[in-house]
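Lab notebook, bench 4. We co-purified these components, and the gel suggests they stay together. Before we commit to crystallization screens, I want a quick structural picture of the whole thing.
Request: model the full complex, all chains together.
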Amino acid sequence: MAHAVAQQHPIRLYLVVWGLLFVLSTCSYLVDYFDLEGMLRYGLILLFMMLKAGLIVAVFMHMAWERLALVYAILVPVGAVLVFIGIMAFEADYTFLTRLTFFQSASASGTSP
Amino acid sequence: MLQHTLVESGETQARPAGWSGVAADLSSDQRAFKNVSWGKAMMWIFLLSDTFIFSCFLIAYMTARMSTTVPWPIPSEVFALTISGTRLPLILIAIMTFVLISSSGTMALAVNFGYRRNRAATAALLVLTAMLGAAFVGMQAFEWTKLIHEGVRPWSNPWGAEQFGSTFFMITGFHGTHVTFGVIFLLIVARKVWRGDFDQERRGFFTSRKGNYESVEIMGLYWHFVDLVWVFIFAFFYLW
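Here is the predicted assembly.
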């Protein structure tokens, strides 16, 4: 199709991003290897994950050069997923608490749950 | 032709920058995604729907893991391998990650060489991508075999919460299926490139569209998406 603008970028850019993805993957593996714990672990996992995802979408999938209308049409609906995560985290927390209460009262009265 | 008029109305009008440009593009009675072919737009919309599917799997996993009162098996130990006497945590998963990222790199280069109309390099890189993808699926099969021998089932496992098995098989199985189909499509596109379909604008057997190197980029979008999903699975299922 003649109207489609070809995504033509220097090969060097792809090689740099490729290298960065390797470095970031190594970093996220080292998080586990050195057995980091607590907020440091989760923070680093999320940081490396978001950086990798961003590089793949922006450069490898050419999102950085697409028209804004397409970028928003694809990326904005993903925000709904974040809301869903929030709702289900809240729900899971509630389920966990009710299970704790139920199993505790069941073991206190001597019946198996 | 209808397509021709669309092209002309789509390309000549200048648009304001930022949000007002988005509103102008989407509210006008014409093609919304200018300078993007429908093939690419459709692939993006498919990938968005696939994002929702994988999100639902990962959210279900989060819900199961957060709400169980039984301890969750420790992935770092479950997926450890002993190689020449040393026990390395998650080593197979790390290798699988590197293989998939390598395949993403070769895919990106294939797209680039395609637009340079370098037929041989594009075909070779596509075949290399497919081989790396097949290697990934092979390692995943090895991992599944190992876990099944160790007694992991969708309903139970030796280490803790029962939901571990069902979420593991569901999420990695669905991802592995995506990789497998990707490998098949990569080989089909590689064959088309090698035969010169995109140089001679040979029409496709299914859509009768003229062949174009943009097909390689659309194939690439799918393949990078598979890699993208693995980034999230790696972070949330294996590292968390």
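The CA atoms of residues 100 and 106 of chain A lie 10 Å apart. Worth comparing against the SEC data before the next meeting. Residues 1-66 of chain A form one domain.
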